[in-house]
Amino acid sequence: MSGADAVRVPAEARWAGVLRAMAGPLLRGLLPVGSILGLWYLAILTSGLPAFVIPRPERVLETLVEDRAFIAFHLLSTLEVAALGLLVANVAGVGLAVLFDSLPFTRPLLMPAAITLRNVPYVALVSVLMLAIGDTTGSKVAVVALSGFFPVLVNTMQGLRAADTVLLDRMRILNAGWWETFRLVRLPFAVPSIVAAQQIAGTSSIIVAISAEWMISSEGLGYVINRAMQTYRGDQVYAVALIATGLSLVVYALVQRLGRWFDWRR
Amino acid sequence: MAAPILIRGVSRRFGNSLALTPVSLEIQAGEFVALIGPSGCGKTTLLRIVADLEQPSTGEVRIGEETAAGARRKRMLGLVSQRPAVLPWNTAAADVAFTQKVAGRVGYPAAGLLREFGLGGHEGKRPGELSGGMLQRVNIASAIAHDPAVLLMDEPFSALDEMKREELGGWFDRELARRPKTVLFVTHHIDEAVLLADRLVVFSSSPGRVLDVVRVPVPRPRDPGFRRDPRFLETAAHVRRLLFGAEAAA
Fold first, then answer.
1. Pairing between strand B77-80 and B150-154?
2. Neighboring chain B residues of A176 at a CB cutoff of 8 Å
3. What's the CATH number for A57-262?
4. Where residue B224 falls among pLDDT bands split at 50, 70, 90?
5. Residue ranges of the domains in chain A?
6. Hey, which end of chain B has fewer CB within 10 Å, N or C?
């Protein structure tokens, strides 16, 4: 018997190995979907609610296919609001954190205003914005930005303080300026905190954009939900909910991936 | 090129508490001076004042022709801390190059410096991949990469075990012979200070003040056998007497 024959594995055993290797990830992916579907059907069977309140999953999938052009149009509008809101939240949050860090006297001046804005109920904020600038992209972007900027601000502030003092001493002894120290030491140390803020602000930007559209807009997934409620189209509401959840998960995964790329600890 | 340090009447007060009573000290270019004393005696404060990282309440520091701030601005200083100041994302070579980039001056080419520091073959490793002793060597290499005239060291070997500390101390003594610098060295270890320094400035605490300045009667670099030399034992015993009193030294 040759050496190669001695280590040859029978085809059945090889396939069994492949199946075993695939079974784990497959089960991990299918179990959550299976359990959600199971609970969904259980609710349909036991709640006694009409189909327009709790439609069957296959009906929701049909709606997603049938109304794809309509939903896609409004999805783009929501994505635009969420993306712009997130961008403004980051510019404001990171910008304020850098300002507080470089000019500490500005912190007691501006931080109370930031905390107040954070604690204003969004419903009141949306109403004021509606009165001020009407049903525009700007009003919805403002709501998303206001909801996202505080976690970005707080996390960035924390991150900028994370640099080890011996490294800051090293920069000072080399007569490095503020910008050089910020760019080469403080910002890289702050990146993990800024990424953590994106996981909060990024995922919530979709939900907040939909909520703002639900209250004031004639465009976007929030508007689709509003319209569907008035026309007893529970299937559309569920379709939008599915898309919003999926989008939030995609944003979360994207942020994680980008974060790993920027994070020096990887 | 090493530079002399002149410390004239430097004191430091934190609020109402006097951390350091006025200290005056003249350090020759290329001299190695150890500051030794108990915790809280002001030796690190004095080092940080010389580094222009803290301001004195009274007095002044001159480094060569410059004030401490002027020397820092001209990148005449190198600082080695107890915790290595190596950027965690840098490789050993990148960290040495980082100093040179920020200082705008290549004192010693990175590859050659690391090789001479016994780090050949480890240039591409990050801090997490280096042992404590190797990491401290990278730290020192980065601190002198721009060829500063003065090296300020705050307990650089104290995080290492006894054997590593001794090994690294001997190595550093030999390195200094190749690249002369004026060294101000803060330490808690009497033997380490006597082995490495030309002079020891002995401090007492509460408030921090200079008890005595002790000269080690053997020139540097020193033979590894110096530890068994009667002059080493005599000097170390004298410093112990100053720090702990006659009973403890006996």
1. parallel
2. 102
3. 1.10.3720.10
4. confident
5. 3-47, 57-262
6. C
